[in-house]
């Protein structure tokens, strides 16, 4: 991994592929922010309560060549500015400190999401959306709010889309999609049953499918044509979802601009029309 900012993110997006025991080992290693290039494999294994081969196995499942590569990646990551942005919120924090910590955690999510972004996948997603006849967005809870935000932006430039946050409506939508259509699935975990079912049906009917998720090894990520990954470090109070939402909103803002650029003249003309249509609603 050439970009130190990407190390923590690459580990987090692969965590769902680990067994509970492997996940425990990974968490124990990630907690070792004092790790150095002389920290022996034996010490890490003993601290985690597992064998040395188990530590090597976890390192490889997380995308490294072995323990030494894993160790070096962590050293470089913890020395990066991105890793230092995140600090846990404590009960004694003042309002000023809370604001600083929340903002810096969001900045970390943006930095690391940018570092792991697959630009080829991003461009394919923009192309699918530009060419599509129908664009249907699926998500529940907070993910549905992200879907609505991007749908609103697309409407401003004349690109129509529909947002579905009900399991039955998602399935009805997916049943009507075909080869000229696109379905975008929004799911932080990548394991939301209603979204998975709808995506499976949409793809069965020939539609292009795109996932916006936090985990590249999730069921959803393995079920679609294109995966756009966000990443965020978990926080006991804020949680992953809240911070990842900032990264996903920015990622989709970029996707919106990329789609607009496919036919900039039309996008600009439609933007002017929609702005004029709502202008009179503002108090003078």
Provide a concise account of the structure shown:
The chain is 59% helix and 8% strand. It is α/β, with parallel strands linked by helices and 284 residues long.
What does the model show?
It is a single chain. The model has no long low-confidence stretch (mean pLDDT 89). The protein is built from 13 helices and 5 strands. With 284 residues, the chain is an alpha/beta fold. The chain has a 5-stranded parallel sheet, sandwiched between helices. Helix 9 links the parallel strand 1 and strand 2. It has 2 domains: 81 residues, Winged helix-like DNA-binding domain superfamily/Winged helix DNA-binding domain (Arc Repressor Mutant, subunit A), CATH 1.10.10.10; 163 residues, Glucose-6-phosphate isomerase like protein, domain 1 (Rossmann fold). Helices cover 59% and strands 8% of the residues. 42% of the residues are buried.
Overall shape: globular
N-to-C order of helices and strands: HHHHHHHHEHEHEHEEHH
Specify the helix fraction band.
55-70%
Number of domains in the coordinates?
Answer: 2
> Count of DSSP helices?
13
In terms of DSSP E residues, the strand content is: 5-15%
| Number of E strands | 5
CATH topology of the largest domain: Rossmann fold
Order of strands, widest sheet: 2-1-3-4-5
Structural class of the helices, strands and pairings? alpha/beta
Specify the biggest β-sheet.
5 strands, parallel
Low-confidence residue ranges: none
Secondary-structure arrangement, i.e. CATH architecture of the largest domain: 3-Layer(aba) Sandwich
Estimated radius of gyration: 21 Å
The fourth-level CATH homologous superfamily of the largest domain is Glucose-6-phosphate isomerase like protein, domain 1
Q: Report the mean per-residue pLDDT as an integer.
A: 89
GO molecular function, one term: DNA-binding transcription factor activity
InterPro entries: Homeodomain-like_sf (IPR009057), HTH_RpiR (IPR000281), RpiR-like (IPR047640), RpiR-like_SIS (IPR035472), SIS_dom (IPR001347), SIS_dom_sf (IPR046348), WH-like_DNA-bd_sf (IPR036388)
Protein name: RpiR family transcriptional regulator
Keywords: DNA-binding, Transcription, Transcription regulation
């Amino acid at each position: 991994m050439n970009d130190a900012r990407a190390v923590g993110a690459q580990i987090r997006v692969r965590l769902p592929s680990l067994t509970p025991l492997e996940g425990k080992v990974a968490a124990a290693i990630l907690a070792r922010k004092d790790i150095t290039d002389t920290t022996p494999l034996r010490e890490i294994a003993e601290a985690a309560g597992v064998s040395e081969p188990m530590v090597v196995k976890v390192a490889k499942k997380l995308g490294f060549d072995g323990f030494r590569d894993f160790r070096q990646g962590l050293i470089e990551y913890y020395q990066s500015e991105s890793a230092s942005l995140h600090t846990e919120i404590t009960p004694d924090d003042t309002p000023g400190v809370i604001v600083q910590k929340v903002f810096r955690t969001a900045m970390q999510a943006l930095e690391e999401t940018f570092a792991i972004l697959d630009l080829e996948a991003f461009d394919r997603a923009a192309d699918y959306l530009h060419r599509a006849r129908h664009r249907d967005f699926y998500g529940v809870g907070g993910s549905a709010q992200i879907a609505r935000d991007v749908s609103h932006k697309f409407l401003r430039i004349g690109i129509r889309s529909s947002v579905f946050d009900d399991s039955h409506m998602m399935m009805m939508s997916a049943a009507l999609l075909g080869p000229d259509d696109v379905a975008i699935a929004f799911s932080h975990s990548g394991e939301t049953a209603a979204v998975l079912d709808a995506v499976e049906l949409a793809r069965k009917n020939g539609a292009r499918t795109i996932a916006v998720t936090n985990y590249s090894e999730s069921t959803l990520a393995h079920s679609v044509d294109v995966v756009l990954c966000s990443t965020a470090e978990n926080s006991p109070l804020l949680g992953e979802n809240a911070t990842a939402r900032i990264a996903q909103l920015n990622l989709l803002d970029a996707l919106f601009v990329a789609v607009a650029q496919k036919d900039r003249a039309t996008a600009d003309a439609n933007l002017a029309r929609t702005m004029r249509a709502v202008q009179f609603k503002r108090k003078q």
